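note to self — DONT lose this again. spent like an hour looking for the file last time. sequence + predicted structure for the chain T wanted, 364 res
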Amino acid sequence: MMSADRPQIGLVSNADAYEKDAVPEEVERLNKFADFHYAEFNEASDWDEAPPQNPDENARLIEFASGLDGLIICHGSPRITAAILDAAPSVRIVGELEGDRFARRIDVEAASARGVKAVDTTHGSSYGVSEWALAMSMIGLRNAGALFRRMIAGEAVFTDMDDRANDPGFLKSELTGKTVGIIGVGHIGRRFLELLKPFNVTVYAHDPYVPLEIADIYDITMTTLDNVMSIPDVVVCLAPITPATQGMIGKHEIGLMKPGTVFVNVSRGAIVDSDALIERLNKNDMIACLDVFEPEPVPVDSPVRQMTNVFLTPHIAGVNVIGGPRFFRLMVDEMERFFSGHDTRYDLLPRTIANRSGGPVPQG
């Protein structure tokens, strides 16, 4: 039974997404201020392509959404098009839970033209990624990967001062007071900046898509990619993979890193030219901590697996059992803000779409 004086909010997804994301405690929290409804859909779900148009499923979605004020979608949902929004005029907000990094399941322009708010909480995974970026930075500065390799190989490590004094981890050691370069100041980058605060670091960052006010808010210096690669002690890649960032860090950029630099990549491997990175690592004058690589998984015969100045993990930064429920928790937060008359936080804006698609930076 729908209540006329309470928002009607529905979730459209496949069964797997519902089970993973819509945990009972968050559904209960949503039901405190709204009536919650669920409909299972099983349309194709892809990271890069919109679901194909299916008239029968679109009609079923319209029937489900016609009485809703808010619509949450996830894997399995049809694309929310102008026709669907026109046929469900009571819907005032559409939210994507996850997997919509390029707004493929929402026609954002059509929503905007109809006064429908479009938000997404894909960044629910940013918490884990930013934590791992911090951990990788510290692992690299301590040269912990190489020391671990030596210890499990049976070596007696640091038995004399000469051994310790020549170790990069002994020379670089602490994160406190270092200079850190950040490529990408989106949700992950901003959470990483929060984690860096206790370490009193100096930050140089590159991201053409963020407002310039970010520099003042976080007390960082926004600058060119060349400066981010060449100035800091630690360089951390947090950019999304788009046509504009594919291969963005090539031989030139990798060559700019000064000797002793720690390079961390927890975003996507294809942003970095793998051959150029391996060529630089062969000089053994820097350390790389890589959660991602191109190709992925890292080929068993890749030289990067054997390099003592490389610390590898198998793309674990943002993938964990905590992430799914967080997507939904953040969406419940957004729905509560919206239906309480407050501004939402995670709007899909022209700048957001441009960033995720690698398009030109919107002016103004």
